[in-house]
Amino acid sequence: LEPTGKLRDAMQQIQSNHLDFRMKDTCPRNSEDMQYLFDTFDQMADEIEASREKDKKMYQAEMDNLRLQVNPHMLLNSLNTIYSLAQMKKFEAIQEYALHLVDYFRYALRRNDNLVRVAQELQFIKTYIEIQKIRYPGALVYVYAVDPECEKALVPPLLIQNFVENAVKYAVKPGKVTEILLNVKRVEDRLHISVTDTGAGMKPEIQQRLA
Who's near 19: CB < 8 A, 6+ residues apart? Predict the structure, then answer.
């Protein structure tokens, strides 16, 4: 029964996310049948580890693609805004806008962090909102409620910001005050994040299709 116990322990190692564990490193030669099981286990462990690495690379590629989508769009809008402010000779607004823009791109272009704390993402969203307030004077109100215990939770960068950006893109209209509401709370062992706005919303027929 000893080889069977070792096989069970090896499976527990993989379940505990120790993907580099291999039986060939810990077990002497056994019977032909047991050795076949051990070799098969190591082969499966190799495939699991390779699959995990592939998933990581795909995730990183998706994040890089997301950055490429966000930055040119934001940059073009920002250049147009700065040009308009310059025409109106609002130089203090240009200075404020430029400072927020530096903070925005410093965060958005970071490539080393696959996960960030909720508090960092919220600070980035505040920077983004301040930029949009300059673009849409008097048209945007941002309200958020975050449980203090959630601020250290880890999320993919730009995850929450993209929903806030969609709210700005589709809900905010010049001449009308729109509220964007962000809530982050913990429900049991899950992080619940909601982004809502007071815009026009979706047409009933679209809602029915999504239901």
Answer: 45, 48, 49, 52
Beta-bridge mates of residue 91: none
Tokens of residue 94, six digits: 């240009």
CB 132 within 8 A of CB 178: no
Integer CA distances (angstroms), 123 to 2, 86, 119, 182, in order: 55, 27, 6, 13
The strand ranges marked E within the chain are: 116-117, 140-146, 154-155, 178-187, 190-197
Contact 187, 150 (CB under 8 A): no
Q: How far apart are CA 162 and CA 179, in angstroms?
A: 16
Give residue for tokens 């240009």.
Answer: 94
Q: How far is CA 55 from the centre of its chain?
A: 16
The reported pLDDT for the residue numbered 49 is 80
**Mean pLDDT of successive 10-residue segments in the chain (211 residues)?**
75 78 65 74 82 75 62 80 92 93 85 83 94 92 93 91 90 89 93 91 77 65
Q: Rounded to whole angstroms, how far apart are CA atoms 200 and 207?
A: 13
Taken as a whole, the chain contains a residue count of 211
Q: What would the two tokens of residue 206 be?
A: 């679209």
> Helix (H, G, I), strand (E, B), or coil: what is residue 189?
coil
CA 18 to chain centre: 25
- Which strand (E) or helix (H) includes residue 68? helix 32-87
Q: In 3D, which of 151, 153, 150, 180 has the Cα closest to residue 164?
A: 180
